[in-house]
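Case study B.
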Amino acid sequence: MMKYDLVIAGGGAAGLAAAASFIEEQKKKGAGESASVCILEKNEYPGRKINATGGGRCNLTNKACPGKEETLDFFRNIGIETWQDSEGRYYPYTNKASDVSKALIDAVSGADIKCGFTVKVISRIQPDDGSEGCFMITGMQGSAMEMVFADKVLIAMGGKAGPQFGTTGDGYTIARTLGHTVTRVFPILTGIECRAEGVDFASLKGIRAKGTVILTKDGAPIVRDTGEIQFTEDGVSGICVFNLTPHIKADKRERFEDALKRFKIVVDLAPDFTEEQLASRESAFGILTEKLAAVFDRVGADSESGAADTARIKHWELDITGIKGWRDAQATFGGVALDEINMDTMESRLVPGLYFAGEIIDAQGPCGGFNLQNAWETGIKAARGIIDGEI
Ligand SMILES: Cc1cc2nc3c(=O)[nH]c(=O)nc-3n(C[C@H](O)[C@H](O)[C@H](O)COP(=O)(O)OP(=O)(O)OC[C@H]3O[C@@H](n4cnc5c(N)ncnc54)[C@H](O)[C@@H]3O)c2cc1C
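Model:
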């Protein structure tokens, strides 16, 4: 029977940051034998999702994140320098996401990494004789059932976004069986399916336009963002659109399909121009690309004036018909309830010795490096919490 001091379930951003930080802190302590760490990862290699982040460049934090300095120090320590773009997003200096995962994997070389291991059950074993208990982690490695034991366990199995990268929500089931509450989860930071009068979205697919998007609920604006809007076969996408999605949610006991009807996106496709400036134009072409301009010119041509429908260019209402699913989502809204976790140490308030980090907890941010920041930060906090709790 193999018993580790620490088992980390999930070798993604949070799990690797936790393991690297744990090993580094152990080294700093110097004396004696270092604690044994095991990472259990479902995929054939750890950090698979990291490689896909930021369009392959890994937007690893943001200047607006209070904890960003510590993240930058952490990466510098493992050999990764960074640079900041004009919008405050940090990337590795080499612009290669796979360099980030490589540095993390190198930093955890002192851990036992079991890949192709799908964790199924985590349970606490408490002997009757009052002696100290431990955790039993049961999983499948290929077709074989395997068990590992640990004094402490960190659950860093991510959420449900991007199941193609291994995150299928397994951690929620495990957290629930350990007594934790998991709040309602839904996909966020993803495209929105829309309908607009007289518009065939399929014909706009691939067009990109600079604009402002405002999400309204029952007619009142609730959030806005500006950036590049990307048209898809059935709606809109792009970072500014992604950032609306955490706000599109149902009220308690409301069906999501019913809630959707209360939301609209109002698009301003000419944020740098006033309505007066646009009113003198005969066509939207020149501000918008030809195909997109035709949407407004056609409406204008049908109208009495025969000119472009310029008012609509700055106030284009889209009905929301759906949100793209988990495969297209970059993050999960909801997760393990925060009031059941000590957020200084990431230890469960219900099960001593159990820790959580990363997207599995009910914490989510917009695009721009905030979600990876959450993963690194909570992973590093958990590592310290585990060490301070004396392994
Ligand atoms: C395409 C894409 C691009 C993104 N780009 C950015 C970006 O640029 N900046 C940003 O801040 N955020 C980005 N995100 C979000 C960010 O990647 C996640 O929030 C972050 O990776 C979460 O870290 P985590 O460690 O909690 O989970 P993950 O990194 O998802 O890692 C969880 C790990 O647990 C493993 N696992 C799951 N279930 C089991 C199981 N049963 N047994 C064993 N292992 C299991 C998974 O295989 C996975 O390796 C992006 C997400 C996607 C999908």
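Residues 9-15, 40-43, 48-49, 52-54, 58-59, 117-119, 156-158, 161-162, 166-167, 170, 330-331, 358-360, 369-372, 375 surround flavin-adenine dinucleotide (CB under 6 Å). The remaining cases will be described in the next quarterly update.
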